[in-house]
Fold these 2 entries.
Entry 1:
Amino acid sequence: MIKIEQIHPVSDFVRNYKTYMDRIKLTKNSEVLTVNGKPECVIVDAEVFQLMSDAYEKARFVQAVNEGIESMNRGEGKPAEEAFLKIRKKLDL
């Protein structure tokens, strides 16, 4: 959850970027930068960003697997041997 003290004008970030960078590295909390009072971007520690990216990719994979299972349960899938045969034929293996 973003707290009000983590929302700042981009102009303040430009003037005091070192302070921001130090604080973000220390706290691992993200900071929202605004332009004309509207959120424009979020600054996140690189390590935290990597964790977020990994979690997002895992969630996408799990969703794709679940969609595949649902498709098979609806009878829309093909037997593995049939699918592999089609792939081998397409790749001329």
Note: The longest strand covers residues 38-43.
Entry 2:
Amino acid sequence: MKLIKNNKVTIFVIILFLVMVLGVIEIKNYLMPDDAKAVYGDRLDGIEEHPLSDSTLKGIEDKLKENDKVTDAKGWIKGKIIKYIITYSDNTSVADAKKVANGLVDMFENDELGYYDLEVTLKKDNKELNNFPIAGYKSPETKTIVYSKDREITKEEENEE
């Protein structure tokens, strides 16, 4: 008790300092968003109602790899976007590559594609071919995949190969 009576001012200053620190922390939490908690904000509301398992994505990868034009396929989910990278053999035409990728829409249920966006990247084993990669995108409001502008191999580049 004697210790408290002799150090009233010191104890008061320590308590005041702790209250001020807690106040500054609360004000900071109120004024500044916590990026670690909400990367997507409220855009992912309702995602629990539309679960999509890794086994579903793996099954679709396996279906894609069954096609003799596809050498590799990789799919994953990032937030509200289902992403696929499909690698084709070098002798695959742009039209055939798009046809295979368009089959992705049929591999998902309408409920899933009504919530998630679908993003596909089509590429070839030979990275030197300048008519690939091709990017495709399907939003929940659309029924088909829309692709980036087609690029044709130019004669100058064909001679370099």
Note: Helices lie at 2-6, 8-31, 54-65, 94-107, 110-113, 155-160.
